[in-house]
Amino acid sequence: MVSEEEARKKIVETVRPLPSRRLSLSQALDCFAAEDYVARLPLPTFDNSAMDGYAVVASSCKKGQRLRVIGEQPAGRDKQLSVSAGEAIRIFTGAPVPQGADAIVMQEDVTRDGDEIVVNTDVKAGEFIRRRGCDLAEGQKILAAGERIGPATLALLASQGFAEVMIGGEVKAAILSTGDELVKPGGKLEPGQIYESNSALLNALVQRCGVIVKSEEHCRDDRERLTEAIKRGIKNNILIISGGVSVGEHDLVRDALYKLGAQIEVWRVAIKPGKPFLFGQLNQCAVFGLPGNPVSAFVTFLQFVRPTILKMMGATNLNLPQVPAKLTVDLMNDSDRAHYIRGRLEHGKFTPVGRQESHALFGLSQSNALLRLDLGHSLKADEIVDVQIWDW
Length: 392
What we know:
392 residues, alpha/beta, Molybdenum Cofactor Biosythetic Enzyme, Chain A, Molybdopterin biosynthesis moea protein, domain 2, Molybdopterin biosynthesis moeA protein, domain 3, 4 domains, 6-stranded mixed sheet, 28 strands
Protein backbone atom coordinates (compact mmCIF):
# COMPACT_ATOMS: atom_id res chain seq x y z
CA MET A 1 0.00 0.00 0.00
CA VAL A 2 1.44 3.36 -1.04
CA SER A 3 0.78 6.84 0.32
CA GLU A 4 -1.66 9.13 -1.41
CA GLU A 5 1.11 11.62 -2.24
CA GLU A 6 3.37 8.92 -3.71
CA ALA A 7 0.53 7.44 -5.77
CA ARG A 8 -0.51 10.79 -7.23
CA LYS A 9 3.08 11.78 -8.01
CA LYS A 10 3.75 8.50 -9.78
CA ILE A 11 0.53 8.64 -11.79
CA VAL A 12 0.92 12.25 -12.91
CA GLU A 13 4.58 11.77 -13.84
CA THR A 14 3.71 8.71 -15.90
CA VAL A 15 1.30 10.40 -18.32
CA ARG A 16 2.12 13.02 -20.93
CA PRO A 17 0.04 15.80 -22.47
CA LEU A 18 -1.67 14.76 -25.70
CA PRO A 19 -0.94 16.59 -28.99
CA SER A 20 -2.47 20.07 -29.17
CA ARG A 21 -5.09 21.09 -31.72
CA ARG A 22 -6.64 24.22 -33.15
CA LEU A 23 -10.30 25.02 -32.49
CA SER A 24 -12.63 27.90 -33.21
CA LEU A 25 -13.47 30.08 -30.22
CA SER A 26 -17.01 28.68 -30.18
CA GLN A 27 -15.59 25.19 -29.50
CA ALA A 28 -12.89 26.10 -26.99
CA LEU A 29 -14.92 26.73 -23.83
CA ASP A 30 -13.36 25.02 -20.77
CA CYS A 31 -10.42 23.73 -22.82
CA PHE A 32 -6.82 24.52 -21.87
CA ALA A 33 -4.63 26.84 -23.88
CA ALA A 34 -1.68 25.14 -25.55
CA GLU A 35 0.32 28.35 -25.93
CA ASP A 36 0.54 31.88 -24.58
CA TYR A 37 -1.59 34.62 -26.12
CA VAL A 38 -0.82 38.35 -25.97
CA ALA A 39 -2.93 41.37 -26.83
CA ARG A 40 -2.69 42.55 -30.43
CA LEU A 41 -4.62 45.72 -29.68
CA PRO A 42 -5.10 47.99 -26.67
CA LEU A 43 -8.53 48.01 -25.03
CA PRO A 44 -10.25 50.26 -25.67
CA THR A 45 -8.61 50.76 -29.06
CA PHE A 46 -9.53 54.46 -29.03
CA ASP A 47 -10.83 57.05 -26.56
CA ASN A 48 -14.60 56.57 -26.38
CA SER A 49 -17.63 57.69 -24.46
CA ALA A 50 -18.84 55.72 -21.44
CA MET A 51 -22.27 57.33 -21.57
CA ASP A 52 -24.92 58.76 -23.86
CA GLY A 53 -24.51 62.52 -23.60
CA TYR A 54 -22.43 65.37 -24.98
CA ALA A 55 -18.71 65.70 -25.67
CA VAL A 56 -17.48 69.01 -24.25
CA VAL A 57 -14.47 71.01 -23.10
CA ALA A 58 -14.69 70.73 -19.32
CA SER A 59 -13.26 74.19 -18.60
CA SER A 60 -16.19 75.80 -20.44
CA CYS A 61 -18.85 73.83 -18.56
CA LYS A 62 -19.96 75.49 -15.38
CA LYS A 63 -23.38 74.80 -13.91
CA GLY A 64 -25.92 76.85 -15.88
CA GLN A 65 -23.61 77.27 -18.92
CA ARG A 66 -25.22 77.21 -22.37
CA LEU A 67 -23.37 75.33 -25.14
CA ARG A 68 -24.08 75.20 -28.85
CA VAL A 69 -24.58 71.67 -30.28
CA ILE A 70 -22.55 71.49 -33.52
CA GLY A 71 -22.83 67.80 -34.49
CA GLU A 72 -23.45 64.21 -33.56
CA GLN A 73 -21.09 61.24 -33.17
CA PRO A 74 -22.79 57.82 -32.95
CA ALA A 75 -21.00 54.58 -32.15
CA GLY A 76 -19.32 53.22 -35.24
CA ARG A 77 -17.30 55.03 -37.88
CA ASP A 78 -15.33 57.98 -36.54
CA LYS A 79 -16.69 61.15 -38.22
CA GLN A 80 -13.48 63.03 -37.29
CA LEU A 81 -15.39 65.79 -35.50
CA SER A 82 -13.80 68.41 -33.27
CA VAL A 83 -15.19 70.60 -30.51
CA SER A 84 -14.10 73.89 -28.94
CA ALA A 85 -14.96 75.85 -25.81
CA GLY A 86 -18.61 76.83 -25.76
CA GLU A 87 -19.58 73.94 -28.06
CA ALA A 88 -20.92 70.40 -27.58
CA ILE A 89 -21.27 67.32 -29.75
CA ARG A 90 -24.05 64.82 -29.19
CA ILE A 91 -22.39 61.47 -28.48
CA PHE A 92 -23.43 57.91 -27.67
CA THR A 93 -21.93 55.12 -25.57
CA GLY A 94 -18.89 53.60 -27.26
CA ALA A 95 -18.54 56.38 -29.82
CA PRO A 96 -15.11 57.93 -30.56
CA VAL A 97 -14.43 61.07 -28.54
CA PRO A 98 -14.19 64.12 -30.86
CA GLN A 99 -10.91 66.01 -31.07
CA GLY A 100 -10.68 68.75 -28.44
CA ALA A 101 -13.20 67.16 -26.04
CA ASP A 102 -11.91 66.19 -22.62
CA ALA A 103 -15.17 65.20 -20.88
CA ILE A 104 -18.61 63.75 -21.47
CA VAL A 105 -21.59 65.26 -19.72
CA MET A 106 -24.44 62.78 -19.34
CA GLN A 107 -27.68 63.54 -21.15
CA GLU A 108 -29.48 63.39 -17.79
CA ASP A 109 -27.35 66.33 -16.60
CA VAL A 110 -28.32 68.73 -19.36
CA THR A 111 -31.47 70.42 -20.66
CA ARG A 112 -31.80 70.46 -24.43
CA ASP A 113 -33.07 73.75 -25.89
CA GLY A 114 -33.14 73.58 -29.69
CA ASP A 115 -29.53 73.73 -30.93
CA GLU A 116 -28.23 74.41 -27.45
CA ILE A 117 -27.91 72.61 -24.14
CA VAL A 118 -27.92 74.00 -20.62
CA VAL A 119 -25.43 72.23 -18.36
CA ASN A 120 -27.04 71.44 -14.99
CA THR A 121 -23.90 70.27 -13.17
CA ASP A 122 -20.22 71.06 -12.89
CA VAL A 123 -18.06 69.00 -15.26
CA LYS A 124 -14.57 67.70 -14.57
CA ALA A 125 -11.97 66.84 -17.19
CA GLY A 126 -11.85 63.13 -17.96
CA GLU A 127 -15.39 62.37 -16.81
CA PHE A 128 -17.04 59.44 -18.61
CA ILE A 129 -14.22 59.00 -21.13
CA ARG A 130 -12.72 55.53 -21.57
CA ARG A 131 -9.10 56.18 -22.48
CA ARG A 132 -7.30 54.09 -25.09
CA GLY A 133 -5.54 51.14 -23.43
CA CYS A 134 -6.96 51.81 -19.95
CA ASP A 135 -8.17 48.20 -19.69
CA LEU A 136 -5.52 46.32 -21.66
CA ALA A 137 -2.18 47.30 -23.15
CA GLU A 138 -0.92 46.05 -26.50
CA GLY A 139 1.49 43.15 -25.91
CA GLN A 140 0.04 42.30 -22.49
CA LYS A 141 -0.42 38.58 -21.83
CA ILE A 142 -4.10 37.65 -21.91
CA LEU A 143 -3.90 33.85 -21.67
CA ALA A 144 -1.10 31.54 -20.53
CA ALA A 145 -0.46 28.02 -21.75
CA GLY A 146 -2.22 25.54 -19.47
CA GLU A 147 -4.94 27.94 -18.30
CA ARG A 148 -8.59 26.99 -18.62
CA ILE A 149 -10.49 29.07 -21.16
CA GLY A 150 -13.68 30.49 -19.67
CA PRO A 151 -16.45 32.57 -21.26
CA ALA A 152 -14.82 35.92 -20.41
CA THR A 153 -11.48 34.75 -21.81
CA LEU A 154 -13.21 33.76 -25.04
CA ALA A 155 -14.63 37.26 -25.25
CA LEU A 156 -11.18 38.75 -24.61
CA LEU A 157 -9.63 36.62 -27.37
CA ALA A 158 -12.41 37.67 -29.73
CA SER A 159 -11.76 41.33 -28.88
CA GLN A 160 -8.22 40.82 -30.16
CA GLY A 161 -9.34 39.35 -33.45
CA PHE A 162 -8.52 35.73 -32.66
CA ALA A 163 -10.96 33.43 -34.46
CA GLU A 164 -9.19 30.23 -33.36
CA VAL A 165 -7.09 29.10 -30.42
CA MET A 166 -4.57 26.30 -29.89
CA ILE A 167 -5.72 24.03 -27.08
CA GLY A 168 -4.57 20.84 -25.41
CA GLY A 169 -5.29 17.33 -26.60
CA GLU A 170 -8.64 15.60 -26.80
CA VAL A 171 -9.00 12.81 -24.22
CA LYS A 172 -11.13 9.77 -25.00
CA ALA A 173 -12.25 7.37 -22.29
CA ALA A 174 -13.90 4.01 -21.82
CA ILE A 175 -15.82 3.08 -18.67
CA LEU A 176 -16.14 -0.53 -17.58
CA SER A 177 -18.11 -1.72 -14.55
CA THR A 178 -17.73 -5.25 -13.18
CA GLY A 179 -19.62 -7.57 -10.88
CA ASP A 180 -22.24 -10.35 -10.98
CA GLU A 181 -24.31 -8.52 -8.38
CA LEU A 182 -24.98 -5.54 -10.63
CA VAL A 183 -28.05 -4.98 -12.79
CA LYS A 184 -28.49 -2.21 -15.33
CA PRO A 185 -31.06 0.42 -14.22
CA GLY A 186 -34.44 -0.54 -15.61
CA GLY A 187 -33.73 -4.27 -15.30
CA LYS A 188 -35.21 -6.71 -12.81
CA LEU A 189 -33.41 -7.23 -9.52
CA GLU A 190 -32.94 -10.75 -8.19
CA PRO A 191 -32.31 -11.38 -4.48
CA GLY A 192 -28.82 -10.16 -3.59
CA GLN A 193 -28.48 -7.89 -6.61
CA ILE A 194 -28.25 -4.09 -6.81
CA TYR A 195 -28.58 -1.56 -9.59
CA GLU A 196 -25.31 -0.50 -11.20
CA SER A 197 -24.70 3.19 -10.43
CA ASN A 198 -20.97 3.70 -10.83
CA SER A 199 -21.17 4.05 -14.60
CA ALA A 200 -23.57 6.97 -14.27
CA LEU A 201 -21.31 8.55 -11.65
CA LEU A 202 -18.08 8.09 -13.59
CA ASN A 203 -19.60 9.08 -16.91
CA ALA A 204 -20.74 12.37 -15.40
CA LEU A 205 -17.39 13.02 -13.71
CA VAL A 206 -15.46 12.26 -16.89
CA GLN A 207 -17.67 14.48 -19.02
CA ARG A 208 -17.41 17.27 -16.44
CA CYS A 209 -13.66 17.16 -17.10
CA GLY A 210 -14.27 17.66 -20.82
CA VAL A 211 -13.51 14.07 -21.84
CA ILE A 212 -15.28 12.21 -24.64
CA VAL A 213 -16.77 8.91 -23.42
CA LYS A 214 -16.37 6.51 -26.32
CA SER A 215 -17.78 3.41 -24.64
CA GLU A 216 -19.53 2.31 -21.47
CA GLU A 217 -20.17 -1.33 -20.69
CA HIS A 218 -20.74 -3.79 -17.87
CA CYS A 219 -18.95 -7.10 -17.48
CA ARG A 220 -19.80 -10.02 -15.23
CA ASP A 221 -17.11 -11.68 -13.10
CA ASP A 222 -15.85 -13.79 -15.97
CA ARG A 223 -12.14 -13.81 -16.86
CA GLU A 224 -12.56 -14.26 -20.58
CA ARG A 225 -15.27 -11.62 -20.94
CA LEU A 226 -13.34 -9.21 -18.74
CA THR A 227 -10.21 -9.67 -20.84
CA GLU A 228 -12.10 -8.93 -24.04
CA ALA A 229 -13.76 -5.87 -22.48
CA ILE A 230 -10.36 -4.53 -21.38
CA LYS A 231 -9.00 -5.04 -24.91
CA ARG A 232 -11.81 -2.89 -26.25
CA GLY A 233 -11.35 -0.25 -23.57
CA ILE A 234 -7.61 0.29 -24.06
CA LYS A 235 -8.20 1.61 -27.58
CA ASN A 236 -8.83 4.92 -25.78
CA ASN A 237 -6.55 7.26 -23.85
CA ILE A 238 -8.09 6.26 -20.52
CA LEU A 239 -9.86 3.14 -19.30
CA ILE A 240 -11.70 3.39 -15.98
CA ILE A 241 -12.74 0.09 -14.41
CA SER A 242 -14.97 0.08 -11.33
CA GLY A 243 -15.03 -2.94 -9.04
CA GLY A 244 -12.98 -6.11 -9.12
CA VAL A 245 -9.75 -4.49 -7.90
CA SER A 246 -9.69 -5.75 -4.31
CA VAL A 247 -8.22 -9.05 -3.08
CA GLY A 248 -11.24 -11.36 -3.15
CA GLU A 249 -11.57 -14.47 -5.29
CA HIS A 250 -13.96 -12.65 -7.63
CA ASP A 251 -11.72 -9.59 -8.00
CA LEU A 252 -10.27 -10.39 -11.40
CA VAL A 253 -9.16 -7.05 -12.79
CA ARG A 254 -5.53 -6.93 -11.69
CA ASP A 255 -4.84 -10.49 -12.83
CA ALA A 256 -6.50 -9.83 -16.21
CA LEU A 257 -4.40 -6.71 -16.72
CA TYR A 258 -1.18 -8.53 -15.84
CA LYS A 259 -1.94 -11.28 -18.34
CA LEU A 260 -2.50 -8.69 -21.06
CA GLY A 261 0.93 -7.23 -20.35
CA ALA A 262 -0.06 -4.17 -18.35
CA GLN A 263 2.52 -2.38 -16.25
CA ILE A 264 0.93 -1.81 -12.83
CA GLU A 265 2.36 1.34 -11.26
CA VAL A 266 0.11 1.72 -8.20
CA TRP A 267 -1.74 -0.93 -6.22
CA ARG A 268 -3.71 -0.02 -3.08
CA VAL A 269 -3.50 3.51 -1.65
CA ALA A 270 -3.56 4.69 1.96
CA ILE A 271 -6.74 6.79 1.82
CA LYS A 272 -10.23 6.29 3.20
CA PRO A 273 -12.42 5.61 1.34
CA GLY A 274 -10.55 4.20 -1.62
CA LYS A 275 -7.81 1.77 -0.56
CA PRO A 276 -8.44 -0.84 -3.30
CA PHE A 277 -7.19 1.36 -6.15
CA LEU A 278 -5.09 0.47 -9.17
CA PHE A 279 -3.24 2.41 -11.85
CA GLY A 280 -1.31 0.99 -14.75
CA GLN A 281 -0.53 1.37 -18.43
CA LEU A 282 -1.39 -0.91 -21.31
CA ASN A 283 -0.79 -0.11 -24.98
CA GLN A 284 -0.47 3.66 -24.39
CA CYS A 285 -3.72 3.65 -22.39
CA ALA A 286 -3.84 4.85 -18.78
CA VAL A 287 -5.84 2.25 -16.85
CA PHE A 288 -7.52 3.02 -13.55
CA GLY A 289 -9.08 0.38 -11.33
CA LEU A 290 -11.46 2.08 -8.89
CA PRO A 291 -13.20 0.49 -5.91
CA GLY A 292 -16.73 -0.79 -6.43
CA ASN A 293 -18.24 1.21 -3.59
CA PRO A 294 -19.52 4.47 -5.10
CA VAL A 295 -18.06 6.89 -2.56
CA SER A 296 -14.66 5.21 -2.89
CA ALA A 297 -14.91 5.47 -6.67
CA PHE A 298 -15.84 9.13 -6.36
CA VAL A 299 -12.97 10.06 -4.06
CA THR A 300 -10.32 8.15 -6.00
CA PHE A 301 -11.55 9.67 -9.26
CA LEU A 302 -11.14 13.19 -7.90
CA GLN A 303 -7.75 12.58 -6.32
CA PHE A 304 -6.12 10.48 -9.07
CA VAL A 305 -8.09 10.25 -12.31
CA ARG A 306 -9.05 13.91 -12.61
CA PRO A 307 -5.48 15.28 -12.36
CA THR A 308 -4.35 12.72 -14.93
CA ILE A 309 -7.04 13.83 -17.36
CA LEU A 310 -6.17 17.49 -16.84
CA LYS A 311 -2.49 16.85 -17.52
CA MET A 312 -3.36 14.99 -20.72
CA MET A 313 -5.44 18.01 -21.75
CA GLY A 314 -2.53 20.37 -21.15
CA ALA A 315 -3.59 21.96 -17.86
CA THR A 316 -1.00 23.36 -15.48
CA ASN A 317 -3.20 23.44 -12.35
CA LEU A 318 -4.25 19.87 -11.58
CA ASN A 319 -5.74 20.50 -8.15
CA LEU A 320 -9.36 20.79 -7.11
CA PRO A 321 -10.39 24.30 -6.03
CA GLN A 322 -9.78 24.74 -2.31
CA VAL A 323 -11.41 27.28 0.00
CA PRO A 324 -11.26 28.02 3.74
CA ALA A 325 -14.30 27.19 5.85
CA LYS A 326 -15.33 27.11 9.50
CA LEU A 327 -15.92 23.60 10.79
CA THR A 328 -19.27 23.12 12.52
CA VAL A 329 -18.50 19.91 14.48
CA ASP A 330 -15.60 18.15 16.20
CA LEU A 331 -13.84 15.55 14.03
CA MET A 332 -11.24 12.88 14.72
CA ASN A 333 -9.53 10.37 12.46
CA ASP A 334 -8.51 7.27 14.42
CA SER A 335 -8.25 5.02 11.35
CA ASP A 336 -5.03 3.87 9.67
CA ARG A 337 -5.39 6.19 6.64
CA ALA A 338 -6.13 9.78 5.76
CA HIS A 339 -9.90 10.21 5.61
CA TYR A 340 -11.85 12.30 3.10
CA ILE A 341 -14.93 13.59 4.90
CA ARG A 342 -17.89 14.41 2.65
CA GLY A 343 -19.89 17.44 3.62
CA ARG A 344 -21.76 20.58 2.75
CA LEU A 345 -20.09 23.95 2.33
CA GLU A 346 -22.58 26.77 2.87
CA HIS A 347 -22.05 30.39 3.90
CA GLY A 348 -18.41 29.71 4.73
CA LYS A 349 -19.17 26.75 7.01
CA PHE A 350 -18.44 23.05 6.44
CA THR A 351 -20.72 20.38 7.89
CA PRO A 352 -20.22 16.62 7.38
CA VAL A 353 -23.25 15.05 5.72
CA GLY A 354 -24.66 11.57 6.19
CA ARG A 355 -22.87 8.35 6.96
CA GLN A 356 -19.15 8.58 6.32
CA GLU A 357 -18.96 5.11 4.79
CA SER A 358 -17.87 4.01 1.34
CA HIS A 359 -21.35 2.83 0.27
CA ALA A 360 -23.27 5.91 1.49
CA LEU A 361 -24.37 7.37 -1.84
CA PHE A 362 -27.19 9.52 -0.45
CA GLY A 363 -24.85 11.48 1.82
CA LEU A 364 -22.50 11.98 -1.12
CA SER A 365 -25.36 13.29 -3.26
CA GLN A 366 -26.06 15.97 -0.63
CA SER A 367 -22.41 17.03 -0.38
CA ASN A 368 -20.41 19.57 -2.33
CA ALA A 369 -17.02 19.52 -0.61
CA LEU A 370 -14.34 17.25 0.82
CA LEU A 371 -12.29 17.72 3.96
CA ARG A 372 -9.05 15.72 4.16
CA LEU A 373 -8.44 14.63 7.75
CA ASP A 374 -4.93 13.31 8.29
CA LEU A 375 -4.17 10.07 10.08
CA GLY A 376 -4.49 10.53 13.85
CA HIS A 377 -5.55 14.14 13.46
CA SER A 378 -8.43 15.82 15.29
CA LEU A 379 -10.24 19.09 14.67
CA LYS A 380 -12.52 21.19 16.86
CA ALA A 381 -15.71 22.96 15.90
CA ASP A 382 -15.14 26.56 14.75
CA GLU A 383 -11.63 25.79 13.49
CA ILE A 384 -10.82 27.14 10.03
CA VAL A 385 -10.08 24.32 7.62
CA ASP A 386 -9.38 24.05 3.90
CA VAL A 387 -11.96 22.08 1.93
CA GLN A 388 -11.96 20.90 -1.67
CA ILE A 389 -14.95 21.73 -3.85
CA TRP A 390 -15.73 19.60 -6.87
CA ASP A 391 -18.53 21.44 -8.63
CA TRP A 392 -15.88 23.16 -10.70
